[in-house]
Write a structure and sequence with these properties.
Elements: H1 2-10, H2 19-43, E1 47-52, E2 57-60, H3 62-68, H4 72-75, H5 86-102, E3 106-114, E4 120-131, E5 137-146, H6 148-183, E6 189-193, E7 198-201, H7 203-209, H8 213-216, H9 229-242, E8 244-253, E9 259-272, E10 275-285, H10 287-305, H11 312-327, E11 329-338, E12 343-351, H12 354-360, E13 364-366, H13 370-378, E14 382-384, H14 395-401, E15 408-415, E16 418-428, H15 435-503, H16 513-538, H17 544-566, H18 572-584, E17 591-594, H19 596-607, E18 617-622, E19 628-631, H20 632-648, E20 655-663, E21 666-673, H21 680-684, H22 696-699, H23 715-726, E22 729-735, H24 760-764, E23 768-775, H25 790-796
Parallel strand pairs: 18-20
Antiparallel strand pairs: 1-2, 1-5, 3-4, 4-5, 6-7, 6-10, 8-9, 9-10, 11-12, 11-16, 12-13, 14-15, 15-16, 17-19, 20-21, 21-23, 22-23
Helix pairs in contact: 1-2, 10-11, 10-15, 11-15, 15-16, 17-18, 19-20, 20-23
Length: 797
């Protein structure tokens, strides 16, 4: 460094001779060149260094600080072993000794050093010996660069190559293992490349479809039916898009051309992340399962069809249609044996051609002819692969039906030990009949034979029932007639005996008393028998006074009116006849259009003053609905009757809900009472007429709208007749109060008096009855728009 300073001093300005400046210029150029080299060294990326013979740094550029990872002040004057561990320091010392001895430099020398953060660095350097002009060895100089990342990359590459090699070997082992595993998968499996070519087929695939891996490796499998080509393309694209499909049903061809049903699952696999390498597809043959399912479904439907087809012919037509579908044939027949005539006839038939099906019903032929005759004789199923080559085939039937039978399958219909007919399937659409078809048709035959026998028995029972019903009606008429015929002469005889006894009172009793008592006693027995007949016929337990009470209750108002009208006037019989004519004679029926919600509201307000003594909450929810078309008096009787029945069935402190709302195109009236309800047995007979849900004595003294004031029992029958006559619908549902489940159990008539109900809600939840009446909308052709009555005017206003 001193020499360099001296050089700069010698380069100072001077006034000497002309030769002197030339020397100064040469020396200035040398200094400039040295400064240029220094500048270059200081700015290169590689570290440049000099060390003395002891390894102490005597010079280095700034890049060396970056290479070693230490600041300048840490490196300056320091020994090289400061920057590496003891092992590597000893190695470096040996290298410098070698250079010192041989005076030959070394390049691409690799050192491991530690930076100031104690992180390992890989340094690649060169080193040469420094000598002075006299050849004296002074130290070492060289270039150093940080190759840590390069070395790491090389190591990573080596590790990757090693890992790849290991993975490759592992994959070969895994592939062999997986292929061995796939070979044992019981279902057909295929592995395809992304181009759809075969790379693997397991043995199950070969067993099911017929092709081997050697035949198809690197090729497309020709197993897609022609009608599914476009669908399969779409399925493959879906698999590529979604990477997986599950339980997809389709059809495929086998090597011999047979079509089978398959259940497919598939997945896309990758060898590099995100890049599909191929497809793995599992195809399970479900042909037999589908056939079995169809057979089971057919058996179930046939067994359930008997109630839906009361006519045996309709039932067997249905059976034939199920056979045609299950076995996939052009025609199916149920051939029955006429044992009396020894003939076969087709009671059930199903063909693709309706005319053939119709003509089949007209054919009869001897029971000894044809394939069916062979089945009848042997009791065994028969497969005919080709009718033209079968000696038992009877062409007469085809001629009569204008049909060509190519192949067929016949199985016997057995009922116990008897053969009652034959099931026949004709012209299989896919291939020929096999043993599986025999088993399926045999299963159906067992159910069909039972259904045929059941239908025959049902027909016989129905005919017997009709005959019995006819006899019962004749019996009822005879008994009823006898009952009425007995009543009058018995009454006359008893009255005559009473008169006779009065006339005989003056005579000694020992002469006539015993005879009189014996006659009276036997007449009384006849009268008792007559009462019993009436009880049986009417299904009610009452005596004459019960009947009189009912008649009196129903006619009280009319009789009172007649009596008042009769005072001082004409004969009462004529007046009664006129009144009967007025009440019950034929009348002209006028159909009118009404607003249902307004009519119901009007009837509620009209009837409310008639039951002020009842403490029953009436909640109404009346929504606007389309106008209805019905006679005014009919609608009034229906609404009034339902409301009155609800009030009479609901105890005081109870509740009734009356609703009008839209239903479909029309309107529905709902009357829902939270009363005592009706027992299930009584619900069955509620619309029979003159039937009451309570014992007559329980309400014989009640007023209208009183609790339990039922009585006449004809209102609901009348509503039912009105519904049928004027095309509206009425139905009812009810649940009996759980606290009083029997008709003989009585309600106290007020919730607060009920020993079962602690609060009102208990009663509201215990029983209820709901009547629903649906009225269709009024026609738009103005066919029901008569003159407005006063009542209708008030409603519509």
């Amino acid at each position: 460094m001193a020499a360099k300073s001296k050089g700069r001093g010698e380069g100072a300005p001077s006034t000497r001779s002309k030769k002197k400046p030339k020397k100064i210029v040469r020396r200035s150029a040398s200094v400039a060149t040295l400064a240029g080299y220094r500048s270059f060294i200081e700015n290169i990326d590689d570290g440049v260094y000099e060390v003395d013979l002891h390894g102490n740094f005597t010079y280095f550029n700034n890049a060396l600080c970056q290479v070693f990872g230490f600041p300048r002040e840490e490196i300056e004057g320091a020994n090289f072993n400061k920057f590496m561990d003891e092992k590597h320091a000893l190695g470096a010392l040996e290298i410098f000794k070698k250079i010192f001895r041989t005076e030959k430099g070394i390049v691409d020398l690799t050192w491991e050093t530690l930076d100031q953060d104690k992180q390992k660095r890989i340094i690649e350097l060169s080193a040469t010996l420094i000598t002075d002009k006299n050849g004296v060895k002074k130290g070492f100089r060289g270039i150093a660069r940080d190759v840590t990342e390069k070395v790491k990359a090389q190591h990573a590459l080596k590790e990757s190559e090693s890992a790849y090699q290991c993975a490759f070997e592992a994959s070969r082992v895994a592939e062999k293992r997986y292929r061995t595993l796939l070979d044992f998968v019981p279902y057909p499996m295929a592995v395809f490349t992304v181009e759809g070519k075969v790379s693997y087929l397991n043995p199950a695939f070969t067993q099911t479809f017929g092709w081997s891996l050697e035949e198809l490796r690197g090729k497309h499998i020709p197993y897609v039916p022609a009608d599914l080509q476009e669908q399969v393309k779409a399925d493959i694209q879906k698999l590529l898009d979604e990477k997986m499909i599950h339980r997809h049903e389709s059809r495929r061809l086998t090597k011999d051309g047979k079509v089978i049903e398959v259940l497919m699952s598939g997945a896309v696999f990758s060898e590099m992340e995100g890049e599909p390498a191929g497809e793995l597809v599992l195809l399970r043959d479900i042909t037999q399962e589908k056939k079995l399912q169809l057979t089971q479904d057919a058996l179930f439907r046939i067994s359930m069809a008997l109630p839906s087809y009361p006519r045996l012919e309709d039932l067997l037509d249905y059976v034939s249609s199920r056979i045609k579908r299950v076995l996939e044939v052009e025609g199916a027949l149920v051939i029955l044996l006429d044992e009396a005539k020894k003939e076969f006839y087709f009671l059930g038939a199903a063909y693709d051609d309706r005319d053939t099906q119709r003509r089949a019903k007209e054919v009869r032929y001897p029971a000894t002819k044809g394939v069916s005759g062979r089945v009848l004789k042997t009791g065994q199923p028969v497969i005919v692969p080709d009718t033209s080559k079968d000696p038992y085939f009877y062409g007469f039937v085809d001629d009569q039906m204008h049909f060509k039978s190519r192949n067929m399958l016949d199985v016997p219909l057995k009922s116990g030990d008897r053969i009652i007919g034959v099931l026949c399937a004709i012209n299989k659409k896919g291939g020929v009949f096999d043993q599986t078809d025999v088993e399926r048709l045999n299963l159906i035959a067992g159910t069909v034979a039972l259904s045929i026998e059941n239908a025959r028995y049902a027909k016989e029972v129905t005919e017997a029932y009709k005959e019995l019903a006819s006899l019962n009606r004749a019996k009822d008429r005879a008994i009823n007639h006898l009952s009425h015929e007995l009543k009058t002469p018995v009454s006359v005889l008893m009255a005559s005996l009473s008169i006779l006894s009065k006339k005989l009172e003056d005579l000694p009793e020992q002469g006539w008393k015993k005879t009189y008592e014996r006659a009276w006693r036997n007449l009384d027995r006849i009268l008792g028998i007559q009462y019993q007949v009436e009880d049986i016929m009417a299904d009610k337990q009452y005596r004459t006074y019960h009947l009189l009470n009912m008649l009196l209750e129903q006619c009280t108002d009319e009789l009172e009116t007649l009596v008042v009208q009769e005072v001082g006037e004409g004969p009462i019989i004529g007046r009664i006849k006129n009144k009967i004519e007025e009440l019950y004679g034929p009348k002209e029926i006028k159909v009118s259009e009404f607003s249902l919600e307004r009519f119901v509201e009007w009837r509620i307000e009209t009837l409310r003053p008639k039951f002020p003594h009842r403490e029953v909450e009436i909640a109404s929810h009346l929504e606007p609905v389309p106008n209805i078309c019905v006679p005014e008096d009919v609608l009034e009787k229906v609404v009034d009757g339902l409301l009155r029945n609800a009030i009479e069935a609901t105890p005081d402190e109870g509740k009734i809900e009356i609703t009008v709302h839209r239903k479909g195109d029309g309107g529905e009236l709902i009357v829902h009472d939270y009363g005592i309800g009706i027992t299930e047995e009584n619900q069955k007979r509620l619309f029979e007429g003159f039937f009451t849900t309570h014992d007559t004595m329980a309400y014989s003294s009640k007023r209208p709208f009183d609790f339990y004031a039922g009585g006449k029992g004809a209102d609901l029958l009348r509503m039912k007749i009105f519904a049928e006559r004027f095309s509206f619908e009425i139905d009812m549902e009810s649940s009996r109060c759980g606290f009083i489940p029997k008709d003989s159990d009585l309600c106290p008539g007020r919730i607060s008096k009920c020993r079962f109900c602690k609060e009102r809600g208990d009663c509201l939840k215990s029983g209820e009855t709901t009547f629903r009446v649906y009225f269709p909308p009024a026609p738009e052709d103005q066919s029901c728009a008569p003159e407005e009555s006063q009542e209708q005017g008030r409603i519509n206003a």
